[in-house]
Amino acid sequence: xxxxxxxxxxxxxxxxxxxxxxxxxxxPFKNPTHATLSEVGSTLKSPMPSSSAVPMSMSTDRTPxxxxxxxxxxxxxxxxxxxxxxxxxxxxxxxxxxxxxxxxFTISVPADAGAPLKAVTITQxxxxxxxxxxxQKHQAFAGNRYAAGPEIPLASVGGxxxxxxxxxxxxxxxxxxxxxxxALDIKANPGWGGIYEFGVTAYPTSxxxxxxxxxxxxxNLYGVDN
Length: 226
Hints:
By secondary structure, the chain is of the alpha+beta class. The chain has helices at residues 2-21, 37-45, 57-60; strands spanning 73-74, 78-79, 86-92, 101-109, 117-124, 139-142, 165-174, 178-186, 194-204, 212-221. The chain has a four-stranded antiparallel beta sheet, with no helix packed on it. The longest helix has 20 residues, at 2-21. The N and C termini lie far apart (84 Å).
């Protein structure tokens, strides 16, 4: 009988400790991979980080996040696409070593997206060389090719350039049921050839909207020895 009382006492003690510590494990989890648009924007406007601090997390997580339901709110603040956009193609109009080029990324926003597309980040995955973007000349066009349709004005983002990353913010969000081609101006292709991968993340029309990783656009470049 005394043994049973000891067991019950121990169980009660453990339950008491767990109940007092539980709030410590209930802190809201912040997903570092799918940042909000405001978080990404503040990163670009902050002083230039060291090479080890460049935010490459969006390009290293290869698993898209599927968000069920409609433009759902998380903690009353975060929002997601009900059905995320689709990355249709990636293309370089010049793929020779050191040649100036334009990299095209075509994205389709489904009719049931649940929200317009406000912004896109394109981040190069780790490689032997980092592509040099010329952010002052980036463009966007309606349709599935460079200059295939009317040009879509871009909003001014400002801030220093982050190596290997481009941020495109549309002046007017791309509406569901539309296709847009982002044209990134490249100062010069890398001298080292191979397949270069670029992680593409889409953001809905909300400063607190969580980014949806769409996948990788792959561009094949030729090196000086090809």
